[in-house]
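Thread: Transcriptional regulator GfcR, structure

OP (GT): Posting the sequence first so everyone is looking at the same thing. Length is 196 residues per the record. Can we get the structure tokens written out before standup tomorrow? I want them in the notebook alongside the other entries.
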Amino acid sequence: MSKIDDLMERARQLKEKGLTTGEIADELNVSRETALWLLTKAKTERPPSDVYVEMKSVSSSSMRLRGMARILADMIIEHGDPDVIVGVATSGIPVATMVAEELGCELAIYYPRKLKWDGEESHVRGTFSENFASVAGKACVIVDDIITTGNTVLEVAESIRKRGGNVLASAVLVDKRSQEDLSGIPVLSVLRVFRL
């Protein structure tokens, strides 16, 4: 079985469990368009341009994840002194929690609209969890596992600014865009993927 066949099967299983296409994309670390392709057109059309990143060797070990969080915390220190680390649900939350602990910062949690996405554009919005720190009037760093297109970072940044917060940077384990900034927001990454 090829890796694409494996991804198609995993996408199908996640759909059967009731996950939205956006949640499937998040689980598989692919773009929403790639997740939709895996669910609907994989046998008949060429896939969207994307890179699959297998994170299980890191994400399944709290010790390895802590090591990555320490690297990100060290990189963040070079870009300012944040008050709040904003973890992006779902995969960014464990890393953000550890980064916040490393830096002695508060922790905020953001649920992006992509998690509610199921193949059609909608007017669904992302939201901050009320059970965690506020970003109002605070210096923030957005933490996630992977940047694929950058749309989630831009969404979170807009939500932070609407609440009166300031975005210092975005920190991720893997940057699939392989660029140092995103609309003026520095992107700090442990790894960058370059297409040749």
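GT: Both are above now. Quick notes for whoever picks this up: The first strand starts at residue 84 and ends at 88. The chain has a mean pLDDT of 89.
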